Amino acid sequence: MKNIKHLIEPGDFTIEELDSLFRLADAIIADPNKYLDRCKGKLLASLFFEPSTRTRFSFESAMLRLGGQIIGFDDPAASSTSKGESLADTIRTVGCYADIAVLRHPREGTAKLASKYSEDMPVINAGDGGHQHPTQTLTDLMTIRHYKKRLDGHVIAICGDLKFGRTIHSLVKAMSRYEGVRFIFISPEELRMPSYILEGLDESTYMQTDQLESVIHEADILYMSRVQRERFVSEEEYERLKNYYILDKEKLTGAKDDMIVMHPLPRVNEICEEVDDDPRAVYFHQARFGMFIRMALILRLLNMEVEQ
């Protein structure tokens, strides 16, 4: 077995490795033409067992911009899993054709399991159930780093569905590694942050509340999230909670002038369109950063980067 590296959760990379990855992404942004053919002849397997727009498109555009090609599916019905093939056999088979794989699956732990059966092919977790979404976290960290010039010492208010939000779980685990970071978790009681995430934090580094307006003035970063309909068993419960928080211009009057508003997208009703024109709203720029950091990640995992 080759000594290959996977990305299953943010902790798979050290802080130093993350910083190196961000510098590589910065280099790509500065001179994208330098990287146009770095992955020529390489294939990325795009294995999406649940719907995605941004993550799938950003990975596929990242690979194409590096000169590579894409194989895969965005509907499990189009794969042999619909015939009963095991995940292990799917990964082993895909590994016969592709150089790197991106996997999204509704079941927690699937990406980690897939990595155990991938002998020569790096596996990237593109979201597994309500568990982890590490490449969104890379996107988020790069966005914070760009606008705030550093990753330590921030107050991060995270609002919405903290129970099922895999992007949030990954972000908290990643940002908790940096010095002086404090979290404000804003959610209704039913959607509180899971205990397994809180257990990994020092109690002095976070507070929990159900009131956005009372704490927005403290935040350097406001990270909004949608209530995820697909994670609810009860439609009635979803309908009751889906509009619990709606960020509008009036609420933003209480925020710092240099606060940034982030969102992993897609949004539903939790950020009014009137906020889009506010200079603090960076969520569409955040989506673009996602493509560049995924380009850097592909290069790094395939050992195809250009010497700086």
Task: Explain the overall architecture.
With 308 residues, this protein is of the alpha/beta class. The chain folds into 2 domains: 10-132 and 289-301, 3-Layer(aba) Sandwich (Rossmann fold), CATH 3.40.50.1370; 134-287, 3-Layer(aba) Sandwich (Rossmann fold), CATH 3.40.50.1370. It is built from 10 helices and 9 strands. The protein has helices at residues 15-30, 54-65, 87-94, 110-116, 134-148, 166-175, 195-198, 235-241, 249-252, 283-301; strands spanning 43-48, 69-73, 100-105, 123-128, 155-159, 182-186, 206-209, 221-224, 260-262. A 5-stranded parallel sheet has the order 7-6-5-8-9, with helices on one face. Strands 2-1-3-4 form a 4-stranded parallel sheet, sandwiched between helices. Strand 3, helix 4 and strand 4 form a beta-alpha-beta unit. Helix 5 crosses helix 6 and helix 5 packs across helix 10 (283-301). The mean pLDDT is 90.
Write the layout of secondary structure elements.
Layout: H1 15-30, E1 43-48, H2 54-65, E2 69-73, H3 87-94, E3 100-105, H4 110-116, E4 123-128, H5 134-148, E5 155-159, H6 166-175, E6 182-186, H7 195-198, E7 206-209, E8 221-224, H8 235-241, H9 249-252, E9 260-262, H10 283-301
Parallel strand pairs: 1-2, 1-3, 3-4, 5-6, 5-8, 6-7, 8-9
